[in-house]
Amino acid sequence: MGWEALEQWGDARRVEPLAGGVANQVWSVRVGGQLAVGRLGARSDADLAWETDLLRHLDRGGLTVPVPIATTAGRWFADGLVVMTYVEGVPPETEDDWRRVADTLGRLHGLTQGWPQRPGWRSSVDLLQAVSGTRIDLGAMPPEGVARCRAAWARLSGRPTCVVHGDPNPGNIRITADRVALIDWDESHVDVPDLDLVLPHNAAELPDGAYDIAAQASAAWEAAVCWDDEHAREQLSRVRAAEPGTVVADRCAGRA
């Protein structure tokens, strides 16, 4: 249906496109005269229900996130379109900024323990057995690369899981004097929280060994989810080869 779906929000109109949309079209919009953000994409209704439920839960828990705005019929999305509140702020710059980001990510992880997996997604540990999930297809990667990624993820086995933001880069963070906001939840899913904590200045204060495990697992995830562009190959180059004697699942084991 496209942007015609915006009519379902009543007095609503598009203003201008916003930077950063890759898998989606993202525009500033006005709903009832108030500035908001519209995101149009091809995600399934189940996927959008998971994301909008999560954002509403986090808002109720005190986190600053883009909050879904309901249609006039009370729906949180329509025909692939989600309309959310506009979040002001600037990206983090200083070490203190990043420590505030780490604290906010910790609150996210604490609020979502036991949260169900995003429909169709796999966690990094799931991919020790599974071959694919949403944007990841290990069958498209070279076997040696899959072995390196799985060796990195195997070090996370047995750890508690929660929702991870999935992409806490400066462009997805908005800071003001009194709060830190996380935007762009396209990559959020249930996984080991360490994947969110490879931050500048080691702002989450992970011990050296824990930081290395997280950094390796995060680079492996980026390589797999983006394969095979230049960024993915760069990330894979950072993932060390499996140590001799390390046992990981065969690359063709399991099914998506």
From TrEMBL:
<feature type="domain" description="Aminoglycoside phosphotransferase">
    <location>
        <begin position="15"/>
        <end position="216"/>
    </location>
</feature>
<dbReference type="InterPro" id="IPR011009">
    <property type="entry name" value="Kinase-like_dom_sf"/>
</dbReference>
<keyword id="KW-0418">Kinase</keyword>
<dbReference type="InterPro" id="IPR002575">
    <property type="entry name" value="Aminoglycoside_PTrfase"/>
</dbReference>
<dbReference type="Pfam" id="PF01636">
    <property type="entry name" value="APH"/>
</dbReference>
<protein>
    <submittedName>
        <fullName>Ser/Thr protein kinase RdoA involved in Cpx stress response, MazF antagonist</fullName>
    </submittedName>
</protein>
<keyword id="KW-0808">Transferase</keyword>
<dbReference type="GO" id="GO:0016301">
    <property type="term" value="F:kinase activity"/>
</dbReference>
